[in-house]
Amino acid sequence: MPHVVEIAPTGRAKCRACERKIDKGELRFGERLPNVFGEGEMTLWFHMRCAAYKRPEPFLEALHAAVETDGAPTTEIEDAPALEAAAEFGVAHRRVPRINGADLAPTGRARCKSCREAIDKGTWRIVLVFFEEYRFQPSGFIHAACAREYFETTDVIERVRWFSPTLTADELESLRTALESTSTR
């Protein structure tokens, strides 16, 4: 069965990427996968933006299949061109879908997955996850300054903002500055 884009009939589902509730009446993406617990299939639900950011390939499949079968349903999907562009960006930069927000390192014990150096306490780090066994598993951090080397881009602020909604405008600007700095590691 193909992936689906539909309006949530209830508010009981939780997004697999951000772990926030998907409200009743909200458009959502369902990734259909083989059921690991038995026969048939299971559906993993995502907010539309979370799907574009974290599961770009299946999201684009569903979006393109919807266009082929219904003619132009993307007009019903709010921000469809932006979501499609975000998903294509994730496909083009294979490590970008691993972004799960950013924060200031609370200790100096974590090591950067890019340069392998310690991430100093109080410096910006980007949180990474991998999609394994139908869920997102924590996989470490990178220095903000290592973003260009690791992701092959520094255009990640919108994804960070989405997965770290509590960051203020000043904090995002500080992170942007850290992203643009060249890694000296």
In terms of per-residue confidence, which ranges show pLDDT below 50 for 5 or more consecutive residues? 71-75
Relative strand content:
15-25%
| Spatial sequence of strands, sheet with the most strands | 1-2-3
Q: How many beta-strand elements?
A: 6
The CATH homologous superfamily name of the largest domain equals Zinc finger, PARP-type
Structural domain count: 2
Radius of gyration: 18 Å
Secondary-structure element sequence?
Answer: EEEHHHEEEHHH
The end-to-end span amounts to 47 Å
In CATH, the architecture of the largest domain is 2-Layer Sandwich
**Residue-averaged pLDDT, rounded?**
91
- Quick one: biggest sheet? 3 strands, antiparallel
Which fold name is given in CATH as the topology of the largest domain? first zn-finger domain of poly(adp-ribose) polymerase-1
- Contiguous helical run count: 6
Briefly note the structural class of the backbone.
Answer: alpha+beta
Shape: globular
- The CATH class of the largest domain turns out to be Alpha Beta
Give the fraction of residues assigned to helices. Answer: 25-40%
Structural description of this entry:
- The protein is an alpha+beta fold and 185 residues long.
- The chain has 2 domains: 4-92, first zn-finger domain of poly(adp-ribose) polymerase-1; 96-180, 2-Layer Sandwich (first zn-finger domain of poly(adp-ribose) polymerase-1), CATH 3.30.1740.10.
- Helix content is 32%, strand content 23%.
- It has helices at 48-54, 56-70, 80-92, 147-151, 157-163, 169-180; strands spanning 4-7, 27-34, 41-47, 99-104, 124-132, 135-143.
- The strands form 2 sheets. Strands 1-2-3 form a 3-stranded antiparallel β-sheet. Strands 4-5-6 form a 3-stranded antiparallel β-sheet.
- Strand 5 and strand 6 (135-143) form a beta hairpin.
- Helix 1 (48-54) packs parallel to helix 3 and helix 2 (56-70) packs across helix 3 (80-92).
- The relative contact order is 0.13.
